[in-house]
Amino acid sequence: ARKNQRDVIFGNRGMSLEEELNQSNLYYLQQQVAVIHKKPVPIQIVQVDYPRRSAAVIKEAYFKQASTTDYNGVYHGYYLDFEAKETRNKTSFPLNNFHEHQINHMKACVRQAGICFTIIKFSITQELFLLPAATLFEYWDQQTHGRKSIPKKIIADSGFAIAYQFQPLIPYLTCVDKLIENLRNVKGAHHE
Amino acid sequence: ARKNQRDVIFGNRGMSLEEELNQSNLYYLQQQVAVIHKKPVPIQIVQVDYPRRSAAVIKEAYFKQASTTDYNGVYHGYYLDFEAKETRNKTSFPLNNFHEHQINHMKACVRQAGICFTIIKFSITQELFLLPAATLFEYWDQQTHGRKSIPKKIIADSGFAIAYQFQPLIPYLTCVDKLIENLRNVKGAHHE
Ligand SMILES: [Mg+2]
Ligand SMILES: [Mg+2]
Fold first, then answer.
1. Residue from the list A62, A105, A190 with its beta carbon closest to the beta carbon of B55
2. Which of B20, B27, B111, B151 is the most buried (most CB within 10 A)?
3. What is the mean pLDDT of residues B73-97?
Protein backbone atom coordinates (compact mmCIF):
# COMPACT_ATOMS: atom_id res chain seq x y z
CA ALA A 1 0.00 0.00 0.00
CA ARG A 2 1.20 3.48 -0.77
CA LYS A 3 2.26 5.54 2.16
CA ASN A 4 -0.61 7.63 3.41
CA GLN A 5 -0.15 11.30 2.68
CA ARG A 6 -1.20 12.29 6.16
CA ASP A 7 1.61 10.28 7.81
CA VAL A 8 4.07 12.17 5.68
CA ILE A 9 2.62 15.63 6.15
CA PHE A 10 1.11 15.67 9.60
CA GLY A 11 2.91 12.78 11.29
CA ASN A 12 0.26 11.98 13.89
CA ARG A 13 0.40 8.22 13.54
CA GLY A 14 0.46 7.74 17.31
CA MET A 15 -2.78 9.58 18.08
CA SER A 16 -6.00 7.70 18.69
CA LEU A 17 -9.07 8.66 16.70
CA GLU A 18 -10.53 10.08 19.91
CA GLU A 19 -7.52 12.35 20.46
CA GLU A 20 -7.65 13.47 16.84
CA LEU A 21 -11.35 14.30 17.16
CA ASN A 22 -10.92 16.10 20.48
CA GLN A 23 -8.23 18.24 18.90
CA SER A 24 -10.44 18.93 15.88
CA ASN A 25 -13.38 19.85 18.12
CA LEU A 26 -11.20 22.24 20.10
CA TYR A 27 -10.26 23.95 16.85
CA TYR A 28 -13.91 24.17 15.78
CA LEU A 29 -14.80 25.59 19.22
CA GLN A 30 -12.05 28.20 19.17
CA GLN A 31 -12.98 29.24 15.63
CA GLN A 32 -16.66 29.46 16.71
CA VAL A 33 -17.63 26.96 14.03
CA ALA A 34 -19.38 24.43 16.30
CA VAL A 35 -19.64 23.32 19.94
CA ILE A 36 -19.00 19.57 20.06
CA HIS A 37 -17.71 17.74 23.14
CA LYS A 38 -16.73 14.20 24.04
CA LYS A 39 -18.93 13.01 26.86
CA PRO A 40 -17.09 11.92 30.01
CA VAL A 41 -16.92 8.17 30.63
CA PRO A 42 -19.69 7.23 33.07
CA ILE A 43 -18.40 6.00 36.41
CA GLN A 44 -20.16 4.31 39.32
CA ILE A 45 -18.56 5.81 42.43
CA VAL A 46 -18.57 3.57 45.52
CA GLN A 47 -16.19 5.21 47.97
CA VAL A 48 -14.82 8.73 48.30
CA ASP A 49 -12.35 10.01 50.89
CA TYR A 50 -12.37 13.65 51.94
CA PRO A 51 -8.91 14.40 53.32
CA ARG A 52 -8.48 17.67 55.20
CA ARG A 53 -6.98 20.49 53.20
CA SER A 54 -6.94 18.57 49.94
CA ALA A 55 -9.21 17.41 47.16
CA ALA A 56 -11.69 14.57 47.52
CA VAL A 57 -10.19 11.24 46.40
CA ILE A 58 -12.30 8.56 44.75
CA LYS A 59 -11.02 5.28 46.27
CA GLU A 60 -13.37 2.79 44.66
CA ALA A 61 -15.30 3.16 41.43
CA TYR A 62 -16.31 1.13 38.40
CA PHE A 63 -16.79 1.82 34.71
CA LYS A 64 -20.42 1.87 33.66
CA GLN A 65 -21.71 1.07 30.19
CA ALA A 66 -22.40 4.31 28.35
CA SER A 67 -26.07 4.69 27.44
CA THR A 68 -25.42 7.15 24.64
CA THR A 69 -22.72 7.92 22.06
CA ASP A 70 -19.26 9.48 22.33
CA TYR A 71 -19.89 12.97 21.03
CA ASN A 72 -22.68 15.48 20.72
CA GLY A 73 -23.18 19.19 20.30
CA VAL A 74 -24.54 21.96 18.14
CA TYR A 75 -23.58 23.23 14.70
CA HIS A 76 -25.54 25.92 12.82
CA GLY A 77 -28.65 25.12 14.81
CA TYR A 78 -28.35 21.39 14.14
CA TYR A 79 -27.99 18.82 16.88
CA LEU A 80 -25.08 16.49 16.03
CA ASP A 81 -24.56 13.13 17.71
CA PHE A 82 -21.95 10.59 16.75
CA GLU A 83 -19.78 7.65 17.64
CA ALA A 84 -16.09 7.37 16.78
CA LYS A 85 -14.88 3.88 15.96
CA GLU A 86 -11.53 2.48 14.88
CA THR A 87 -11.05 -0.91 13.30
CA ARG A 88 -8.01 -2.91 12.21
CA ASN A 89 -10.16 -4.76 9.69
CA LYS A 90 -9.26 -4.00 6.08
CA THR A 91 -12.34 -4.62 4.00
CA SER A 92 -15.31 -4.15 6.32
CA PHE A 93 -16.47 -2.65 9.61
CA PRO A 94 -17.74 -5.26 12.12
CA LEU A 95 -21.12 -4.41 13.65
CA ASN A 96 -20.09 -5.85 17.02
CA ASN A 97 -18.23 -2.57 17.54
CA PHE A 98 -21.64 -1.19 18.51
CA HIS A 99 -23.92 -1.89 21.45
CA GLU A 100 -27.66 -2.09 20.99
CA HIS A 101 -28.24 0.91 23.30
CA GLN A 102 -25.96 3.12 21.17
CA ILE A 103 -28.01 2.27 18.10
CA ASN A 104 -31.25 2.87 20.01
CA HIS A 105 -29.92 6.22 21.20
CA MET A 106 -29.05 7.26 17.64
CA LYS A 107 -32.46 6.12 16.37
CA ALA A 108 -34.15 8.20 19.07
CA CYS A 109 -32.04 11.24 18.10
CA VAL A 110 -32.85 10.83 14.41
CA ARG A 111 -36.56 10.72 15.34
CA GLN A 112 -36.00 14.18 16.91
CA ALA A 113 -34.37 15.42 13.69
CA GLY A 114 -30.86 15.19 15.08
CA ILE A 115 -27.98 14.55 12.66
CA CYS A 116 -26.37 11.20 13.57
CA PHE A 117 -23.41 9.40 12.10
CA THR A 118 -20.30 7.38 12.84
CA ILE A 119 -16.74 8.40 12.12
CA ILE A 120 -14.92 5.21 11.17
CA LYS A 121 -11.16 4.93 10.98
CA PHE A 122 -9.54 1.99 9.23
CA SER A 123 -6.36 2.22 11.25
CA ILE A 124 -4.13 0.04 9.06
CA THR A 125 -4.59 2.31 6.06
CA GLN A 126 -5.38 5.45 8.12
CA GLU A 127 -8.54 5.94 6.08
CA LEU A 128 -11.41 7.92 7.56
CA PHE A 129 -15.10 7.94 6.66
CA LEU A 130 -18.23 9.61 7.91
CA LEU A 131 -21.03 7.03 7.73
CA PRO A 132 -24.60 8.36 7.95
CA ALA A 133 -26.77 6.73 10.62
CA ALA A 134 -29.28 5.49 8.01
CA THR A 135 -26.75 3.05 6.52
CA LEU A 136 -25.68 1.83 9.95
CA PHE A 137 -29.32 1.23 10.95
CA GLU A 138 -29.94 -0.69 7.70
CA TYR A 139 -27.04 -3.08 8.34
CA TRP A 140 -27.73 -3.30 12.06
CA ASP A 141 -31.36 -4.28 11.54
CA GLN A 142 -30.57 -7.08 9.07
CA GLN A 143 -27.65 -8.65 10.93
CA THR A 144 -29.49 -11.54 12.65
CA HIS A 145 -30.21 -13.11 9.26
CA GLY A 146 -27.61 -11.23 7.22
CA ARG A 147 -23.98 -10.14 7.30
CA LYS A 148 -22.36 -9.00 10.55
CA SER A 149 -20.29 -6.19 9.07
CA ILE A 150 -20.57 -3.25 6.68
CA PRO A 151 -18.36 -3.61 3.58
CA LYS A 152 -15.85 -0.81 3.17
CA LYS A 153 -17.15 -0.26 -0.34
CA ILE A 154 -20.63 0.48 1.04
CA ILE A 155 -19.12 2.84 3.61
CA ALA A 156 -17.24 4.66 0.85
CA ASP A 157 -20.31 4.80 -1.43
CA SER A 158 -23.01 5.77 1.08
CA GLY A 159 -20.68 7.78 3.31
CA PHE A 160 -18.02 10.43 2.85
CA ALA A 161 -14.25 9.99 2.84
CA ILE A 162 -12.51 12.49 5.13
CA ALA A 163 -8.95 13.53 4.30
CA TYR A 164 -6.72 14.52 7.20
CA GLN A 165 -5.57 18.10 6.99
CA PHE A 166 -3.61 20.57 9.09
CA GLN A 167 -6.38 22.35 10.98
CA PRO A 168 -8.72 20.89 11.94
CA LEU A 169 -6.96 17.55 11.70
CA ILE A 170 -10.25 15.81 10.88
CA PRO A 171 -12.43 18.29 8.97
CA TYR A 172 -15.60 16.23 9.42
CA LEU A 173 -17.99 19.18 9.43
CA THR A 174 -17.43 19.55 5.69
CA CYS A 175 -18.97 16.08 5.34
CA VAL A 176 -21.74 17.01 7.80
CA ASP A 177 -22.62 19.89 5.44
CA LYS A 178 -23.03 17.37 2.60
CA LEU A 179 -24.99 15.02 4.84
CA ILE A 180 -27.38 17.83 5.84
CA GLU A 181 -27.72 18.84 2.18
CA ASN A 182 -28.63 15.23 1.26
CA LEU A 183 -31.13 14.96 4.11
CA ARG A 184 -32.77 18.21 2.99
CA ASN A 185 -33.06 16.96 -0.57
CA VAL A 186 -34.66 13.73 0.61
CA LYS A 187 -37.02 15.03 3.28
CA GLY A 188 -37.57 18.63 2.37
CA ALA A 189 -35.97 21.36 4.41
CA HIS A 190 -36.37 21.05 8.15
CA HIS A 191 -34.20 24.07 8.82
CA GLU A 192 -34.30 27.45 7.15
CA ALA B 1 -46.11 30.33 53.39
CA ARG B 2 -48.86 28.12 52.07
CA LYS B 3 -47.98 24.49 51.62
CA ASN B 4 -46.85 23.81 48.11
CA GLN B 5 -49.38 21.81 46.11
CA ARG B 6 -46.76 19.49 44.79
CA ASP B 7 -45.72 18.34 48.26
CA VAL B 8 -49.29 17.41 48.91
CA ILE B 9 -49.98 15.68 45.63
CA PHE B 10 -46.69 14.18 44.54
CA GLY B 11 -44.81 14.00 47.80
CA ASN B 12 -41.28 14.05 46.37
CA ARG B 13 -39.80 16.48 48.82
CA GLY B 14 -36.71 14.32 49.30
CA MET B 15 -35.64 14.28 45.66
CA SER B 16 -32.91 16.56 44.40
CA LEU B 17 -33.60 18.71 41.36
CA GLU B 18 -31.20 16.51 39.42
CA GLU B 19 -33.13 13.36 40.30
CA GLU B 20 -36.39 15.06 39.39
CA LEU B 21 -34.99 16.13 36.03
CA ASN B 22 -33.49 12.71 35.30
CA GLN B 23 -36.86 11.14 35.95
CA SER B 24 -38.58 13.71 33.73
CA ASN B 25 -36.06 13.13 30.94
CA LEU B 26 -36.59 9.38 31.14
CA TYR B 27 -40.30 9.97 30.69
CA TYR B 28 -39.69 12.27 27.71
CA LEU B 29 -37.35 9.66 26.21
CA GLN B 30 -39.79 6.79 26.66
CA GLN B 31 -42.63 8.86 25.19
CA GLN B 32 -40.35 9.80 22.26
CA VAL B 33 -40.79 13.49 23.03
CA ALA B 34 -37.10 14.40 23.36
CA VAL B 35 -33.66 12.88 23.96
CA ILE B 36 -32.04 14.75 26.85
CA HIS B 37 -29.36 13.29 29.09
CA LYS B 38 -27.39 14.37 32.13
CA LYS B 39 -23.71 14.34 31.27
CA PRO B 40 -21.54 12.12 33.46
CA VAL B 41 -19.37 13.90 36.01
CA PRO B 42 -15.87 14.23 34.55
CA ILE B 43 -13.29 12.23 36.47
CA GLN B 44 -9.49 12.21 36.28
CA ILE B 45 -8.52 8.56 36.66
CA VAL B 46 -5.08 7.94 38.19
CA GLN B 47 -4.99 4.24 39.05
CA VAL B 48 -7.01 1.25 37.87
CA ASP B 49 -6.70 -2.36 39.04
CA TYR B 50 -7.61 -5.21 36.71
CA PRO B 51 -8.41 -8.18 38.92
CA ARG B 52 -8.73 -11.56 37.22
CA ARG B 53 -12.27 -12.68 36.51
CA SER B 54 -13.85 -9.46 37.66
CA ALA B 55 -14.45 -5.90 36.58
CA ALA B 56 -11.72 -3.26 36.51
CA VAL B 57 -11.64 -1.23 39.74
CA ILE B 58 -10.73 2.43 39.80
CA LYS B 59 -8.55 2.84 42.92
CA GLU B 60 -7.60 6.48 42.63
CA ALA B 61 -9.42 9.25 40.80
CA TYR B 62 -10.35 12.90 41.24
CA PHE B 63 -13.29 15.08 40.32
CA LYS B 64 -12.56 17.44 37.46
CA GLN B 65 -14.27 20.76 36.86
CA ALA B 66 -16.94 20.31 34.20
CA SER B 67 -16.27 22.40 31.10
CA THR B 68 -19.87 22.39 29.96
CA THR B 69 -23.36 22.30 31.47
CA ASP B 70 -25.36 19.52 33.14
CA TYR B 71 -27.78 18.54 30.41
CA ASN B 72 -28.02 18.56 26.65
CA GLY B 73 -29.91 16.83 23.88
CA VAL B 74 -32.33 17.18 21.00
CA TYR B 75 -36.00 18.15 20.85
CA HIS B 76 -37.90 18.66 17.58
CA GLY B 77 -34.66 19.38 15.74
CA TYR B 78 -33.52 21.90 18.34
CA TYR B 79 -30.32 21.54 20.34
CA LEU B 80 -31.11 22.09 24.03
CA ASP B 81 -28.43 22.80 26.62
CA PHE B 82 -29.07 23.71 30.23
CA GLU B 83 -27.89 23.86 33.80
CA ALA B 84 -29.97 22.81 36.79
CA LYS B 85 -29.45 24.86 39.96
CA GLU B 86 -31.01 24.79 43.39
CA THR B 87 -30.81 27.60 45.87
CA ARG B 88 -31.97 28.06 49.45
CA ASN B 89 -32.12 31.80 48.92
CA LYS B 90 -35.63 33.21 49.03
CA THR B 91 -35.65 36.38 46.99
CA SER B 92 -32.83 36.05 44.47
CA PHE B 93 -30.54 33.60 42.72
CA PRO B 94 -26.82 34.20 43.46
CA LEU B 95 -24.61 34.32 40.36
CA ASN B 96 -21.78 32.53 42.16
CA ASN B 97 -23.73 29.34 41.50
CA PHE B 98 -22.20 29.54 38.03
CA HIS B 99 -18.65 29.15 36.80
CA GLU B 100 -17.32 31.35 34.03
CA HIS B 101 -16.74 28.33 31.75
CA GLN B 102 -20.39 27.29 32.02
CA ILE B 103 -21.48 30.76 30.91
CA ASN B 104 -18.92 30.71 28.09
CA HIS B 105 -20.17 27.30 27.00
CA MET B 106 -23.77 28.54 26.89
CA LYS B 107 -22.75 31.66 24.98
CA ALA B 108 -20.96 29.49 22.42
CA CYS B 109 -24.06 27.26 22.07
CA VAL B 110 -26.36 30.26 21.62
CA ARG B 111 -24.03 31.51 18.87
CA GLN B 112 -24.69 28.16 17.13
CA ALA B 113 -28.46 28.68 17.50
CA GLY B 114 -28.76 26.25 20.39
CA ILE B 115 -31.53 26.80 22.95
CA CYS B 116 -29.92 27.46 26.35
CA PHE B 117 -31.45 28.06 29.73
CA THR B 118 -31.23 27.33 33.45
CA ILE B 119 -33.78 25.46 35.52
CA ILE B 120 -33.75 27.13 38.93
CA LYS B 121 -35.35 25.62 42.01
CA PHE B 122 -35.98 27.73 45.07
CA SER B 123 -35.86 24.79 47.42
CA ILE B 124 -37.45 26.41 50.48
CA THR B 125 -40.64 27.19 48.58
CA GLN B 126 -40.23 24.36 46.03
CA GLU B 127 -40.71 26.87 43.23
CA LEU B 128 -39.30 26.11 39.81
CA PHE B 129 -38.45 28.43 36.93
CA LEU B 130 -36.96 28.14 33.49
CA LEU B 131 -34.69 31.15 32.98
CA PRO B 132 -33.64 31.91 29.38
CA ALA B 133 -29.88 32.25 28.82
CA ALA B 134 -30.24 35.86 27.62
CA THR B 135 -31.29 37.07 31.09
CA LEU B 136 -28.53 35.10 32.77
CA PHE B 137 -25.92 36.58 30.39
CA GLU B 138 -27.25 40.09 31.05
CA TYR B 139 -26.84 39.75 34.83
CA TRP B 140 -23.56 37.84 34.53
CA ASP B 141 -21.97 40.50 32.34
CA GLN B 142 -22.88 43.37 34.67
CA GLN B 143 -21.92 41.73 37.97
CA THR B 144 -18.45 43.26 38.43
CA HIS B 145 -20.01 46.70 38.78
CA GLY B 146 -23.56 45.64 39.55
CA ARG B 147 -25.54 43.19 41.65
CA LYS B 148 -24.30 39.66 42.25
CA SER B 149 -27.64 37.92 42.02
CA ILE B 150 -30.75 37.79 39.87
CA PRO B 151 -33.91 38.93 41.71
CA LYS B 152 -36.62 36.29 41.84
CA LYS B 153 -39.03 38.83 40.41
CA ILE B 154 -36.87 39.17 37.29
CA ILE B 155 -36.66 35.38 37.01
CA ALA B 156 -40.44 35.14 37.21
CA ASP B 157 -40.96 37.97 34.70
CA SER B 158 -38.36 37.10 32.07
CA GLY B 159 -38.59 33.34 32.63
CA PHE B 160 -41.34 30.76 32.99
CA ALA B 161 -42.72 29.23 36.17
CA ILE B 162 -42.89 25.44 35.97
CA ALA B 163 -45.53 23.64 38.03
CA TYR B 164 -44.73 20.12 39.19
CA GLN B 165 -47.08 17.52 37.77
CA PHE B 166 -47.48 13.76 37.78
CA GLN B 167 -45.71 12.81 34.55
CA PRO B 168 -43.26 14.21 33.70
CA LEU B 169 -42.61 15.52 37.19
CA ILE B 170 -41.01 18.68 35.74
CA PRO B 171 -42.74 19.46 32.43
CA TYR B 172 -40.08 21.93 31.34
CA LEU B 173 -40.47 21.29 27.60
CA THR B 174 -43.76 23.17 27.70
CA CYS B 175 -41.71 26.22 28.71
CA VAL B 176 -39.10 25.43 26.05
CA ASP B 177 -41.91 25.62 23.48
CA LYS B 178 -42.72 29.13 24.68
CA LEU B 179 -39.05 30.07 24.74
CA ILE B 180 -38.61 28.87 21.14
CA GLU B 181 -41.75 30.75 20.13
CA ASN B 182 -40.36 33.95 21.70
CA LEU B 183 -36.97 33.49 20.05
CA ARG B 184 -38.67 33.00 16.67
CA ASN B 185 -40.70 36.16 17.12
CA VAL B 186 -37.58 38.15 18.01
CA LYS B 187 -35.13 36.81 15.47
CA GLY B 188 -37.31 35.46 12.70
CA ALA B 189 -37.71 31.76 12.22
CA HIS B 190 -34.50 29.80 12.33
CA HIS B 191 -36.21 26.48 11.83
CA GLU B 192 -38.84 25.18 9.38
MG1 LIG C 1 -16.20 5.25 20.41
MG1 LIG D 1 -26.10 21.82 38.14
1. A62
2. B20
3. 97
